[in-house]
C-alpha cells in the first residue's frame, strides 16, 4: 500500500483548515431528543468522506440491520452505551469502542440504554447523508408520511438497503 497521488501541487501550504468549536449548536435537532452535527460533509471534503456526531436521546432509537452498496460506515462511541450490529450479533458498545463496516456489510445501531448516548459516524467516500437525516426528521415530526413505496424509494435513493 502506498500514498495516493498528490492532490495539492503547491510547495508552501495554505491556510485552509476548518475549525468547529465544541459548543456549536447541532445542525439537525431531532424530535427524539437527539441531534446530528454535520462535522464534515461530502460537500466540504470534496467527496472524500463525511463525518457526523450522532447524539441519541434516552428513548430507544436507531436503524435495524441494513447495508450500503456505495459507502463504508464507521462508528466510534463517544458517550453512553450503544448497541452495534456487526452482521451476526448486537454488541454492547461503550466509549472508545469502534466498528468499521465496508460496503455491503450488514450493520445497525441503536440506543436501548434508557440514557443519552453519542457517537461519531464516518462515511467514506462522502455521500450526501444530510438529505437522508433530514428526511428521517420530517417523517418523525409527521411533516411527511410516505407510502411504503415512497419509503422504499427514499431508502434506496440514500443507499440504505434493509433486510
List the helices and strands and how they pair.
Layout: E1 28-29, E2 35-40, E3 50-56, E4 66-67, E5 72-79, E6 82-85, E7 90-93, E8 98-101, E9 108-110, E10 117-124, H1 129-140, H2 148-157, E11 161-162
Antiparallel strand pairs: 1-2, 2-3, 3-10, 4-11, 5-8, 5-10, 6-7, 6-9
What can you tell me about this protein's structure?
With 163 residues, the chain is α+β, with helices and mostly antiparallel strands. The protein has one domain (28-162): Jelly Rolls (Sandwich). The chain contains 2 helices and 11 strands. It has helices at residues 129-140, 148-157, and strands at 28-29, 35-40, 50-56, 66-67, 72-79, 82-85, 90-93, 98-101, 108-110, 117-124, 161-162. The strands form 3 sheets. It has a 6-stranded antiparallel sheet, with helices on one face. A 3-stranded antiparallel sheet has the order 7-6-9, with no helix packed on it. The longest helix is centred in the last third of the chain and has 12 residues, at 129-140. It is globular. It starts with 27 loop residues before the first strand and ends with a strand. The model has no long low-confidence stretch (mean pLDDT 97).
Keywords:
163 residues; alpha+beta; Jelly Rolls; three-stranded antiparallel β-sheet; 13% helix; globular
Class by SSE composition: alpha+beta
Mean pLDDT: 97
Spell out the helices and strands N to C. Answer: EEEEEEEEEEHHE
**Could you list the spans in which at least 5 consecutive residues all have pLDDT below 50?**
none
The major sheet is characterized as:
6 strands, antiparallel
- State the CATH superfamily name: Jelly Rolls
* Distance separating the two termini: 34 Å
Helix content: 10-25%
Strand percentage lies at 25-35%
Q: Please tell me how large the radius of gyration is.
A: 17 Å
* Shape-level CATH architecture: Sandwich
Question: Which term fits the overall shape?
Answer: globular
Treating each run of at least 4 consecutive H or I residues as one helix, how many helices? Answer: 2
Question: What name is given to the CATH topology?
Answer: Jelly Rolls
Amino acid at each position: 500500500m502506498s500514498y495516493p497521488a498528490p492532490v495539492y501541487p503547491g510547495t508552501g501550504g495554505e491556510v485552509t483548515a476548518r475549525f468547529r468549536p465544541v459548543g456549536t449548536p447541532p445542525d439537525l435537532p431531532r424530535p427524539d431528543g437527539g441531534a446530528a452535527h454535520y462535522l464534515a460533509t461530502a460537500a466540504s471534503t470534496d467527496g472524500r468522506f463525511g463525518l457526523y456526531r450522532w447524539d441519541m436521546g434516552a428513548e430507544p432509537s436507531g436503524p435495524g440491520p441494513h447495508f450500503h452498496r456505495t459507502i463504508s460506515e464507521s462508528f466510534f462511541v463517544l458517550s453512553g452505551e450503544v448497541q452495534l450490529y456487526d452482521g451476526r450479533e448486537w454488541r454492547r458498545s461503550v466509549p472508545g469502542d469502534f466498528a468499521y463496516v465496508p460496503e455491503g456489510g450488514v450493520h445497525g445501531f441503536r440506543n436501548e440504554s434508557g440514557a443519552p448516548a453519542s457517537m461519531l459516524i464516518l462515511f467514506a467516500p462522502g455521500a450526501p447523508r444530510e438529505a437522508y437525516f433530514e428526511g428521517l426528521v420530517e417523517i418523525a415530526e409527521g411533516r411527511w408520511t410516505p407510502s411504503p413505496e415512497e419509503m422504499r424509494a427514499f431508502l434506496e435513493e440514500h443507499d440504505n438497503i434493509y433486510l
